[in-house]
Amino acid sequence: xxxxKHPQTKWIFDAAHEGDAILGxxxxxxxxxxxxxxxxxxxxxxxxRLRRLNREHFDASSxxxxxxxxxxxxxxxxxxxxxxxxxxxxxxxCPVCGSAIKHLPEYYDMTYCxxxxxxIADARxxxxxxxxxxxxxx
Length: 138
Ligand SMILES: [Zn+2]
What we know:
two-stranded antiparallel sheet, elongated, binds zinc ion
């Protein structure tokens, strides 16, 4: 249970916000091959904000820094997936891995290739853990 009066709470919420932004960009990158590389600079901003949060409010945790670096590398890996076909409409299998595209059109961020997105799942789990930013409590 998150203690809203705890001094770290604001930073935990900030980290969750940045993590959500990165996840949103990563989801888009699984769908938009022509724009993947263009999205990377936009991923770099929330990655840098996570690093700043770690330096300034989480005692520059090496566990967190490793997870951030792995998340960054995973996003770069997704951005480099070999494909030229967009799946922004949610139709058809993923041209990279052949998996079905998760497509819930009533939600703005629920169209993506879940299989390709697994590239960043482990780093995201570590960041959300109690040893990371502890965002799993939110
Ligand atoms: Zn895929």
